[in-house]
Design goal:
This protein is of the alpha/beta class. The chain contains ten helices and 13 strands. Helix content is 32%, strand content 16%. The radius of gyration is 20 Å and the shape is globular. Residues 1-29 and 213-231 have low confidence and may be disordered.
């Protein structure tokens, strides 16, 4: 039996079906001369978004806020002004966002060696700081990147998950729990600030030339080795037999997520949540072959049983929390992004993976 959907979860003003705004084909004048503030602009998603904003004449100015200094002009981002700051510092956020029409929040810790309290201060409290600063300076739109992980991997998930399906993160995956919690908190804050339209994207695994590699998911003493040898995804030098589960997944190219973010920035569709993923569903064997391995299929039933058993073990390291994802695929329906936001991915999931490997 499917879970009951919360009453009013996607009613007017909520994430699934926000107030009807100008769609991509409606006869309204597009925004121009926009100032856009972005947190975490140098990560995977920022690297997919910024070239699009650089070439968009509707975007006049971009403010890029990050803790570590960087030179936007060296990346060809001549519209961007760098501001050093931390999402845990409300005053720094207010100063950076002072003239922003739109705020895009991309800064988020996925995993690593940071204590859980630090991760929560940055991910949960920091995100709320960013939203509230955007509201205080009078920004019109707030754009946030969530994740398919917010839906969780459950036996009663539909074959295709659309945005009306409730978010129910995996029991052990801290990343998914934080993403789901943030969606609820942002939705509550958005109701208190009706003049700030909330846009939320749910991508699957994001790949591309700037995709973060294994260096950021190997914990503890393996981290230095991972940074040296797995700084970016690459093909194996020789074919290696690899036991892989019969598991399905979606991928999306960083540039296609950038296009979805760009449309949200411009208010191309109504506020709310949007699933975004490359066309097509891949198997774990497809991914292994692209990396140069020789996949040996492990039937789905045993693989799911092993994954469930492992996910129940106490004291899982951060990277091992993702094992629960293998217990059941979560495949998203992207029709809403296509029909209401006007989004069309350039890459299929397989093409996105191949582009990632080809540029190494």
């Amino acid at each position: 039996m499917s879970p009951a959907r919360p009453a009013g979860r996607h009613g007017a003003g909520a994430l699934g079906e926000g107030p009807r705004g100008p769609g991509p084909n409606e006869d309204t004048a597009p925004d121009r001369g926009l100032t856009v503030a972005i947190t975490g602009p140098t990560g995977t998603l920022g690297s997919g978004l910024m070239p699009l904003l650089q070439d968009d004449d509707r975007i006049e100015r971009v403010i890029g806020m990050a803790r570590r200094p960087f030179a936007p002009a060296e990346r060809g981002w001549t519209k961007m002004e760098y501001r050093q700051g931390d999402v845990r510092d409300p005053e720094a956020l207010l100063d950076a966002f002072r003239d922003a029409d739109v705020v895009v929040h991309l800064a988020f810790l996925i995993t690593g060696n940071a204590p859980r309290q630090t991760t929560r201060e940055i991910n949960i409290e920091g995100t709320l700081n960013v939203f509230r600063a955007a509201a205080e300076v009078g920004a019109r739109r707030f754009v946030y990147a969530s994740s398919v992980a917010a839906y969780g991997w459950h036996a009663d998930n539909p074959a295709l998950i659309d945005e009306t399906w409730p978010v129910r993160p995996a029991a052990r995956l801290f990343y998914g729990q934080e993403k789901a919690e943030l969606e609820a908190l942002l939705e509550a804050d958005a109701r208190r600030h009706p003049d700030l339209a909330l846009y939320l994207l749910r991508p699957p695994v994001v790949v591309g030339p700037n995709a973060v590699g294994a260096k950021d998911v190997l914990p503890g003493p393996l981290a230095p080795l991972a940074r040296r040898f797995f700084d970016r995804p690459r093909r194996l030098p020789v074919p290696v037999p690899l036991l892989v589960p019969e598991y399905q997944l979606q991928l999306v190219h960083e540039e296609d997520v950038g296009r979805a973010l760009q449309l949200c920035i411009l208010g191309a569709g109504p506020p709310g949540a949007y699933n975004v993923a490359g066309e097509g569903v891949l198997t774990a064997g497809d991914v292994a072959r692209e990396f140069g391995a020789l996949p040996i299929r492990l039937p789905a039933g045993p693989a799911q049983s092993v994954a469930k058993a492992l996910s129940r073990l106490p004291f899982l390291p951060p990277v091992a929390e993702w094992v629960e994802a293998v217990s059941r695929p979560s495949i998203m329906d992207t029709r809403r992004a296509r029909e209401e936001l006007g989004w069309q991915p350039r890459y299929t999931g397989l093409e996105a993976l191949r582009d990632t490997l080809r540029r190494r």
